């Protein structure tokens, strides 16, 4: 009953009062933040000063990730990913081979020194092949539990600044390591953190609201229900804000309804960013383009091009979409008994097309990948002539773009160059450069 009352509190909140709801219910108190910081600082000190690590490895640096590092913590609820970069890892492959032994060493040291940490510490049993050591910290006089995942990682980036852009060779190394998708994302934790941390305060509040909604519907659902990763919804929220040019000031209720609507359009989602890695014809760019051609939804991690963070078990997105559709009919998404109009945001960005012709300068278009090919051709129509477009860039050499198809049907969600030919016959030749 307590959960149901809290859930209805969000759904019954009038849309114009969502900002107040966030401020009253979701912002972490200073006491809670101090408690979390104390727990994290104690474990960092332990790792650096009292932990005998694998072959005398030293801690190069520790990075607080998760909601604490990103600045999107919810009150009385925190997840801290504490990434420790160690000198014993000299490559991604080295991390794979030594990680489990390192985690075992940390666990043994913790059990040996647990009384010196001045916190109640619960250590969760290790599973074979695990990538982290999960702990629960609780101050002696506090009720809140701080969840900490300790993740050993290879220091692929070195010391970075807030504006740091990795050299291309780092990502080539990552792809050539041939790990599972996202297996080495701990090495790019700082980039992930900074990508969210850069967001303005009001956007972080919208992120809090979306995360709160996500946590509440998970509580409501049966224990065996599977949902897409929370990080996918964070990135979806940032994408919606970027596409709407939200700036520092926007209406929270419109942003929230936009995210809910995009969730219901999950089958068309195909998102990526080029802040940290390019989408040109490099090995990295070609890798990302192949990822974008996977079955949707696709949301590529801005910091790790190997990871589609929207990957989920069968039916997970469908279930989440049902919850989002239900949310859109609640008072929090209504105004004067009418649905709030969301921002004009499509489930994927418009893409840049360069259309080269036999004569004259190329044409440049911004195109919705879900628009019919016929609509693109109509912009180049000549009386008495037939025009046709062909693809080569995606490995579909000399494949004609059919009028009733869309660029999305060919897996095209990225800047593409086409060559246009005119003919008076039905046999046309047209290639992509």
UniProtKB/TrEMBL annotation:
Pfam families (UniProt xref): NTP_transf_2, OAS1_C
Lineage: Eukaryota, Metazoa, Chordata, Craniata, Vertebrata
Domain spans labelled Polymerase nucleotidyl transferase: 43-117
GO molecular function terms noted in the UniProt entry: 2'-5'-oligoadenylate synthetase activity; ATP binding; double-stranded RNA binding
Family under the similarity heading: Belongs to the 2-5A synthase family.
A GO term from the CC aspect: membrane
Name the record gives this protein: 2'-5'-oligoadenylate synthase 1A-like
Species, as recorded: Pantherophis guttatus
PANTHER family: 2'-5'-OLIGOADENYLATE SYNTHASE-LIKE PROTEIN 2 (PTHR11258:SF7), 2-5 OLIGOADENYLATE SYNTHETASE (PTHR11258)
